[in-house]
Amino acid sequence: MTENIKDKVVVITGASSGLGEETARHLVASGAKVALGARRLDKLNALVAELGVENASAFEGDVTNREAVEAFVTDARAKWGKIDAMLHNAGVMPLAPLAMKRTDEWDRCIDVNLKGVLYGIGAVLPIMQEQGYGQNLFVSSVAGHVVNPVGAVYCATKFGVRAIAESLRQEVKGHGPLRTTILSPGAVDTELPGSVKAEGVHEAVVGLYDQYAIPASSFARSVIFALSQPAEVDINEILFRPTSQE
Ligand code: NDP
């Protein structure tokens, strides 16, 4: 059990793989309860079976659908009685040069990475304000700090996540212990490179991840650190990357 984490209820979007999945494991091992959301219900159900129904619940939904996000958060509160934190984690990374004009991917990236996060805030903030406490954790990236030539849209969404999070922090500070944390990882070994479809870029990204991506436990530990602080301490941002990443 980890101090200040035991019995906390944490809602996680994008919990069917990668960072969300691994964080759910670390949270339950630290004594928390987790409400898991994603589109692949089979993966969520397998994770609930692993973690135990007394510790985890699953909800199928697409974060680009506002009603689905509202239903997920409402279901989580009904099941667990409260929401201590929400990890706004679902995301895609369709890297490609703008000149390839992959407009469907531009739309998808903005819809999942930005609108999905806004819908999550819209769903959970009234609950946290009513409770008088809560912590929102956002997943930006090193790509939310520096741009690269194939990352125009992805970087824009991850810079945007940081802007939304910091604006939220300023909006809610002083209204009870409402905390805001930005997590900005570098390359972490997950399914994410699979969302890079552009020819040439996919191979390059997979090559870099094969070279130096670090385990998802690195991210999960940063979430545990931010969540385990006493109520008066707000860890605003954690930026980390593989030692050999630029
Ligand atoms: P994964 O591809 O392993 O996981 C992405 C998760 O998001 C999955 O659970 C997926 O679930 C979910 N997801 C994607 N689209 C939707 C959608 N429309 N509705 C609901 N859920 C969706 O990648 P990661 O774990 O690496 O990514 C998690 C976050 O971390 C992302 O925001 C990513 O940008 C960020 N990040 C990752 C880094 C890395 O190197 N891995 C580095 C920096 C940031 P499903 O398909 O079942 O819906």
How far apart the termini lie comes to 35 Å
Beta-strand percentage?
A: 15-25%
Q: Please tell me what the overall shape is.
A: globular
Number of helices: 7
Bound compounds, please?
Answer: NADPH dihydro-nicotinamide-adenine-dinucleotide phosphate
The radius of gyration computed from the alpha-carbon positions, rounded to a whole number of angstroms, is 17 Å
The major pleated sheet works out as: 7 strands, parallel
CATH architecture field? 3-Layer(aba) Sandwich
> What is the string of helix and strand elements?
EHEHEHEHEHEHHE
Using the coordinates above, name the CATH class.
Alpha Beta
Q: Low-confidence parts lasting 5 or more residues at pLDDT below 50?
A: none
Can you tell me the CATH superfamily?
A: NAD(P)-binding Rossmann-like Domain
CATH T-level topology? Rossmann fold
Mean pLDDT: 97
**Number of structurally distinct domains:** 1
Which structural class fits the helix and strand makeup?
alpha/beta
Number of strands: 7
Binned, the helix content reads 40-55%
Organism: Aliiruegeria lutimaris
Family: Belongs to the short-chain dehydrogenases/reductases (SDR) family.
GO molecular function: oxidoreductase activity, acting on the CH-OH group of donors, NAD or NADP as acceptor
Keywords: Oxidoreductase
